[in-house]
Amino acid sequence: MTMADFYQNGVITTLHNLVDRSIEELESELKSFSQSRPMGLLLPSLFSELEGEALPNIIDDIAKVDYLSQVVIGLDRATEEQYRHALQFFSKLPQHHRVLWNDGPRLKAIDAKLQALELAPTELGKGRNVWYCMGYILATKKAESIGLHDCDILTYDRGLLARLLYPVANPRFNYEFSKGYYARVADGKINGRVSRLLVTPLIRALQRVCGHNEYLEYMDSFRYPLAGEFSFRRDVLNDLRIPSDWGLEIGTLSEMHRNYSHNRICQVDIAQTYDHKHQDLSLDNQQAGLSKMSIDIAKALFRKLATQGEKFDAGTFRSLKATYYRIALDFVETFNNDAIMNGLKFDIHTEENAVEMFAQNIMTAGQHFLENPMETPFIPTWNRVVSAVPDILDEIKEAVELDFNEFS
Questions:
Q1: 115, 135, 246, 271: which has the fewest C-beta neighbours closer than 10 Å?
Q2: Closest CA to 74 of 37, 105, 34, 107
Q3: pLDDT per residue over 22-78, tens digit each?
Q4: What DSSP line would sit under 33-73, residue for residue?
Q5: Where are the domains of the chain?
Q6: Where are the beta strands (DSSP E) in 279-329?
Q7: How much is the average pLDDT of 324-345?
Q8: Which residues are within 8 A (CB) of 259 and not within 5 positions of it... i.e. 6 or more apart?
Q9: What is the value of pTM for the model shown?
């Protein structure tokens, strides 16, 4: 059953799922592409995900993929015993694979060295994990086209990976970056609240308040801007400044906008259904869950617009909040009708609670932005780090190998 239409909206090419091509057919093409463009996969993981229900299934599936040259796993929050367990856990992968033990003494020593030069990530989390994995991928030069996806996908199958990598793996395409998208429907209801009720309405509100803006048009072209799945060519990694906070996905899209023209970027339909671990709404705690995420995302958008000369003051944020609130409430009605027609559950009260929290958090993010104009939660580009510490990539590669040899 195909889900998508063929409609192209916005300024980014959309690669749809129009027919049910077999996974085997896609994989056989990818296998032939891999002769000229070897492929890798980056998996940012918490140790706790090794004990969840999603990751064991994901690894079983990846083990069947014969076009990958490299799998790089970033492991966070793991003791030595847990790292040993992780090496065992991933050992069923037939591809060349390494686990970056981010909490191990060797990688921590490298981190301390970069901290001293103010070149290291300042916050723990997925952004930091991904950044070190990117450094390792640059160091090893084993993969030319790389996919990245989360480790908590409950509905995973290897077709997702094939579709994710295809746009940057096909030598006839000129895409440097591809963003995955999918419908967030599971357990009989529509998910993806932050994308539906914060990001899209906020971008539309910013377009009204700031006037026509080419960057906002670009951002509004992505069907699921917060998807944690994307793929890229290796040269993209040298110049990417990624945020260390929850703004990772928005920040990555912003960086691609800064570094590449639109025709080098696309989005691809990678799954008919998609479900993963859900964050709490955290109505009463701005430091956790979707509340913290919404503040970080709003700040990421404000920062990006400020770099383009957009001026913000308290009045701007008041107008923005009011405009956002109206647009978001209209979206609640839109999604409610969509849910009813598809026979899905929809809780208007919870959705409007989320909108009220997001409206408040837009003000909080605006306040924070005005009070801390110098805040830049970006991790430096690898180009900059290498210019300061020329042999840093070799050091990372060596540390990962030494860990692997000592503990496996």
A1: 115
A2: 107
A3: 999 999 999 999 999 999 999 999 999 999 999 999 999 999 999 999 999 999 999
A4: HTTTS-EEEEEEEEHHHHTSSHHHHHHHHHTT--SEEEEEE
A5: 13-407
A6: none
A7: 97
A8: 236, 239, 240
A9: 0.94
Rounded CA gap, 402 and 106, in Å?
A: 9
Q: Is 199 left (phi over 0), alpha (psi -120 to 50) or beta?
A: alpha
Instruction: Check if the beta carbon of residue 363 is closer than 8 Å to that of residue 233.
Output: no
CA–CA dist 163, 157 (Å, integer): 11
The side-by-side arrangement of strands in the sheet containing 265-271 is 13-15, 265-271, 177-182, 230-233, 145-148, 39-46, 68-76, 96-101
Determine which helix (DSSP H) or strand (DSSP E) holds 405, and give its type and residue range. Answer: helix 392-407
Query: Which residue shows structure tokens 């913000």?
Result: 312
Tell me the pLDDT of the chain averaged across its residues. Answer: 94
Q: Rounded distance, CA 104 to CA 123, Å?
A: 17
Question: Which class in CATH covers the domain with range 13-407?
Answer: alpha beta
Non-local (6+) Cβ contacts of 6 within 8 A are: 16, 18
To the nearest 5 percent, what fractions of the chain are helix, strand and coil? 50, 15, 35
Tallying the residues shown for the chain, one arrives at 408
Residue type, 160: L
Q: CA–CA separation, 398 vs 38, rounded Å?
A: 22
Give the pLDDT confidence of 88-135 residue by residue, as tens digits. Answer: 999 999 999 999 999 999 999 999 999 999 999 988 999 999 999 999
Q: Convert 249-269 to b/e letters by CB count within 10 Å (16 or more is b).
A: bbbbbbbbbebeebebbbbbb
Is residue 285 within 8 Å of residue 291, measured between CB atoms? yes
Spatial separation of the C-alpha atoms in residues 360 and 384, rounded to whole Å = 37
